[in-house]
UniProtKB/TrEMBL annotation:
Enzyme Commission no: 3.4.13.22
Keywords (A to Z) from UniProt: Cell wall biogenesis/degradation, Dipeptidase, Hydrolase, Membrane, Metal-binding, Metalloprotease, Protease, Transmembrane, Transmembrane helix, Zinc
Highest classification ranks of the organism: Bacteria, Bacillati, Cyanobacteriota, Cyanophyceae, Gloeobacterales
Cofactor descriptive note: Binds 1 zinc ion per subunit.
Function: Catalyzes hydrolysis of the D-alanyl-D-alanine dipeptide.
Cofactors (names): Zn(2+)
UniProt: Zn(2+) binding residues: H140, D147, H208
Source organism: Gloeobacter morelensis MG652769
Active site feature: E205
Keyword Cell wall biogenesis/degradation listed: yes
Descriptive protein name: D-alanyl-D-alanine dipeptidase
Amino acid sequence: MAAPGFLETRSARYDVPRVVEPRILVPWFFVLLALAVVLAAKPVSAEAMVDLGAVAPGVRRDMRYATVDNFLKKAVYPEARCLLRPPVAERLARVQNRLAGAGFGLQVWDCYRPLTVQKQMWALVPDERYVADPAKGSRHNRGAAVDLTLVDSQGQEQEMPTAFDDFSPRAGRDAQAHWSEKARRNYAVLHKAMVAEGFLPLPSEWWHYDAPGWERYAVVDVPLR
Ligand SMILES: C[C@@H](N)C(=O)N[C@H](C)C(=O)O
Ligand SMILES: [Zn+2]
């Protein structure tokens, strides 16, 4: 007769049901492999951009680089369009909804910006506090940054710390002591709504916000059409 210890071992080997049958895993391995191939073929950086007007029609647009009213003193966009990656546009729509509840809204000055335009800007202002180095690419070039301001429910621009693209220390978010009381209050309304929806502020420009996850998108150089 076998020793009791030996019997216990045999019973453990033959009676305990197998929870995962290795053969069952084989087809799943191929399913996951196929999924990975599909995802690799369409990276998130290839995600198309959407017109903000289609996602958030209530947001006002004053696309300055499509006019001569900008620091380049010439129109560098053939069309006044605000194009963004879909999740960025949706995030901005949520900011607009938040502000609408308080009697305010957004007005965008710039969204997606072709890399060629970034190079033109850099040639004029080679200062990374105010213009991103095209060698690295701006988050605007990825369709993942916005320049914007606050308007009231009638679409009237509200007093803010400085004019758009005022490339001076006064435009910095740490310069609040130099802003008017009204500008401080309006800025706070805009900033609170933007960060509540996850946008990331650029310290040197009160009007510029990046979308989280911007690094997942490729730099693009397709003209605005
Ligand atoms: C040029 C200005 N509006 C701006 O967007 N600056 C930041 C730093 C950028 O170029 O990304
Ligand atoms: Zn910007």
